[in-house]
Design brief:
The complex is a heterodimer of chains A (584) and B (258). With 584 residues, chain A is mostly helical. Chain A is built from 21 helices and 2 strands. Chain A has 2 domains: 134 residues; 449 residues, no CATH class. Classes of the chains: A mainly alpha (584), B mainly alpha (258). At the A-B interface, helix 1, helix 4, helix 5, helix 6 and helix 8 of A face helix 1, helix 2, helix 4 and helix 7 of B.
Chain lengths: 584, 258
């Protein structure tokens, strides 16, 4: 017999499943707005339940055994959920992001009779299951449900580019599924169990073992593919660019960071006992994370198509999160958890602004839209604010996460990834600010290198008033800014400790207060350079143009959109991970 | 990248992975060396505590039932996604009955085909049902039986023609079957919680070992899966057939990209 609050654990997964099955069964009977209402209420219920679970999990993780199959004599028979405070809060955040996104997409998908909401709710259930599970194979099941739901959501527009983006996503993420399944097979062969704790015990007993390292290599590669880490990042830009804007908000706000969340969990709780993995993880994650932060930021700056720009910005921020995981400390993990929430709120808001432009101005091409945003000023203010938050304006959740990540990196003496994070954040913020200046203020008549970036004709139908689209976007920004700082300061250390199953150890280290300002100043400088290029003296502009154009074109050429290229890079990435593990 | 460069990069990565692969292969337990403890436990639990002869069903629908619930909804996501994409611009609008293209001759079927399908169709459906309900006794279960059931509906198409098939099969019923089956499966998890048991804990009478009525809740779960799979697959056939139809109403402005 299970009691409150443990008995709540299956509900955040089961409720969306029940709602989407009932919605499918009665799809043609439901009146017009019913799917929207049902989906929003369900997402809110998930957020609320997850929040209750998280607040009850402060003493230690809550454990639930499905089917009543509790371990017997140390053998794990069934599947368990194990929810620590951090996993619960992340699930609550995801539920909230979904609810706001459903409001943003109000009536947008009316023609599909609830099928959009069914897919989104399945996607939500899979994400929560992914957060809660303590079983490797169950983790894989939810990982795959996410991929399957995403394919149809990405291809929704049914144009050539949408189908190409969806196919790239499917091929790369199916390979991720294969890698993960292979890794699970290896670790099961060696440990004879699928439960996180069971595997961890076997790993700690085993000493240096190539099979454990191989399993970690495959599972980590799979999760980094989901998390869009260099050199696995290629699919993301293609998929986010073509997906409908409400879907992109979820992709960038929750799905990508959830891959990294899974990676943090698996490296700490499952493979943490292996010295080899423990030595390899900091080098690997710092290196890849730093490279990802820089490449994503630079690529974001080179884009003219707003959704593609935001996609690259997500890649950059995923890199920053990865460096935080690589610190392998309470500070780093706490920072990453706060960063996931802050980044999700801001990035979700930015994709909604892209959706507003698609609906009201029938384009998101920053050069084509120059000066055309004047009628929808509030959206411009929101966009500028989001851009400033993105590069590190010292208010709100994202800033707190940034400072915690920087503190962890500074404490661990990881100067290079720290600098990469600061530069990456500045570059993505600059890209967003420049686009906002062009679209809403009409600045930046000289298109510069951005003119060579890919663009496309895209529009979304305008069937709802501006306030209904702008409202959810402002709710997200307000949540980022308005969440009391003390709440996070008090909550984050405990959440990080319970996430890592360690004892809490006081407060978390914060980075120097001037560092975020450095990012902001850098972002404003770079954005101003992009906007006022024409009025700057030649001796400033010419050297920049001469040195930047060639590498820029080379980078753009790498993102060719060809699945074969992406698969080749994926193999290189797996080889790199294996190489670092072998050296460790 | 040129194709040659791409292959070169892939080959290089594969080469770099070779020593690691060799080390992993050498480190694995030898083939058939040990029967994992987990397997031995399940071989004892399934007949003893669940009265089930088919171990695979015991794992899929009881011990690791949550995985199967996830798989069931993965299937549902795949089918719903395919339906959304196939309907595409055509939208929700679906004709109630088959449409005829004027001027195109309908070639009559030979009596032999009609007779064979009319005999084989009900038999196939019966066999599908048999596979579904004997999930706990013989190899098979809801997924396998559901596909066989869906095949039986295709035999109607073969025997009676497209018009006859569309008369027999209604899109909304298929949705109801697919969603209803998945709902039944989820309720098999939730209802035990109302009685104070865990999610998907077997609270029904377990029946007799090697009897049709054995395994308790597993039987209901398999019925749900069978329903959902049969409905889902038939829905897929229907949408693939309808895919070729042109949209019969003009697009709303902006609809083409919305």
């Amino acid at each position: 017999m299970t009691h409150f609050p443990v008995a709540l654990l299956p509900l955040p997964v089961a409720i969306p499943l029940v709602v989407c099955a009932s919605m499918l069964a009665t799809a043609h009977l439901l009146p017009g707005r019913m799917p929207d209402i049902l989906a929003t209420v369900t997402a809110l219920a998930v957020a609320l339940l997850s929040g209750v679970i998280a607040s009850q999990a402060t003493e230690g993780p809550l454990v639930y055994w499905f089917g009543g199959w509790e371990p017997r004599d140390g053998v794990h028979l069934g599947i368990g959920f194990s929810v620590d405070a951090a996993s619960g809060w992340i699930a609550a955040f995801i539920g909230l992001l979904y609810a706001v996104t459903f409001v943003f997409a109000w009536g947008f998908f009316a023609r599909t009779h609830g099928h959009f909401q069914i897919l989104m709710l399945l996607f939500l259930a899979a994400m929560v299951g992914f957060c809660f599970t303590r079983d490797m194979f169950n983790l894989f099941v939810w990982f795959e449900v996410m991929s399957v739901a995403v394919f149809a959501l990405t291809a929704y527009h049914l144009e050539e580019s949408a189908l190409a983006g969806a196919i790239n996503f499917t091929v790369v993420n199916s390979l991720a599924g294969f890698l993960m399944l292979g890794g699970i097979g290896l670790i099961y062969a060696q440990s004879g169990t699928l439960d996180f704790e069971g595997i961890a015990a076997a790993v700690a007993r085993g000493g240096r073992d190539p099979v454990v390292a191989g399993a970690f290599c495959l599972v980590a590669a799979a999760l980094m593919i989901k998390g869009a880490i260099v050199p696995f990042q290629f699919w993301l830009a293609d998929a986010h660019t073509v997906a409908p804007s409400p879907v992109s908000a979820i992709f960038s706000g929750a799905m990508v960071s959830l891959g990294l969340f899974g990676l943090a969990k698996v490296s700490a709780l499952v493979f943490g006992g292996s010295d080899q993995v423990h030595r390899a993880v900091p080098i690997l994650l710092m290196g890849l994370g730093g490279a990802t932060a820089l490449l994503g930021g630079w690529m974001a700056l080179l884009q003219r198509y707003l959704k593609r720009l935001l996609a690259f910005s997500t890649i950059s921020h995923a890199g920053i999160m990865l460096t935080a995981i690589g610190a392998l400390s309470l500070d780093g993990t706490g920072g990453m958890l706060v960063y996931i929430v802050g980044h999700g709120l801001v990035k979700g808001a930015l994709f909604m602004i892209a959706g507003i432009l698609l609906a009201t101005r029938a384009s998101v091409d920053e050069i084509a839209l120059r000066g055309l945003g004047r009628g929808i000023g509030p959206a411009g203010i929101a966009m500028a604010l989001a851009g400033l938050l993105l590069c590190g304006l010292p208010i709100g959740v994202l800033d707190q996460g940034t400072r915690l990540v920087q503190g962890a990196l500074a404490r661990g003496g990881h100067g290079v990834p720290l600098a990469a994070g600061v530069i990456g954040a500045a570059l993505t913020g600059a890209a967003v600010l420049r686009a906002a200046g062009r679209i809403f203020l009409g600045l930046g008549s000289d298109p510069g290198d951005e003119a060579g970036a890919p663009s496309a004709d895209e529009r979304e139908k305008l069937n709802r008033p501006l306030w209904l689209m702008l409202g959810p976007c402002c709710v997200l920004l307000a949540a980022d800014i308005g969440l009391p700082a003390e709440l996070i300061e008090h909550g984050a250390p405990g959440a990080a400790a319970s996430f890592l199953h360690r004892a809490a150890a006081g407060g978390l280290a914060e980075g120097p207060a001037w560092l975020p300002w450095l990012s902001v100043a850098g972002a404003i400088t770079v954005a101003a350079y992009g906007l006022f290029r024409r009025s700057l003296p030649g001796f400033v502009v010419k050297p920049v143009r001469a040195t930047q154009s060639a590498p820029t074109q080379a980078l753009e050429a790498l993102h060719s959109g060809l699945t074969g290229d992406y698969v080749a890079w994926l193999a290189v990435g797996v080889a790199a991970i294996a190489g670092v593990l072998a050296m460790a | 990248m040129t194709p040659r460069l791409r292959i070169g990069l892939l080959a290089l990565a594969g080469l770099a992975l070779l020593p690691g692969t060799a080390a992993v292969t050498a480190g694995l337990p030898a083939f058939g060396a040990t029967i994992a403890e987990y397997g031995a436990r399940i071989n004892a639990i399934a007949p003893g505590e669940r009265h089930v002869a088919n171990m695979v069903s015991a794992i899929n629908f009881d011990l690791r039932g949550l995985d199967t619930l996830g798989e069931e909804f993965m299937l549902l996501a795949a089918i719903t996604g395919t339906v959304v994409l196939l309907r595409g611009r055509r939208g929700e609008g679906i004709t109630e009955r088959a449409m005829r293209r004027p001027g195109r001759a309908v070639i009559p079927r030979s009596d032999a085909v009609v007779l064979a399908c009319r005999i084989a169709g009900p038999l196939t459906a019966l066999f599908g049902l048999y596979v579904v309900v004997h999930a706990t006794v013989t190899p098979g279960g809801g997924f396998q039986g559901g596909v066989i059931l869906a095949t039986a509906t295709l035999l109607i198409y073969l025997g009676e023609g497209y018009a006859g098939w569309r008369d027999a099969v209604r899109s909304h019923w298929l949705d109801a079957m697919e969603g209803g089956g998945a709902l039944l499966f989820t309720f098999c998890g939730l209802v035990p919680m109302l009685f104070g048991a865990a999610f998907m804990q077997n609270i029904l009478p377990l029946g007799t070992f090697r009897d049709l009525f054995s395994g308790g809740l597993m039987l209901v779960e398999n019925l749900g899966v069978g329903m959902a799979v049969a409905g889902g697959f038939t829905q897929l056939f229907l949408e693939f057939m309808e895919e070729t139809r042109e949209a019969d109403q003009p697009d709303e402005p902006g609809e083409e990209t919305a």
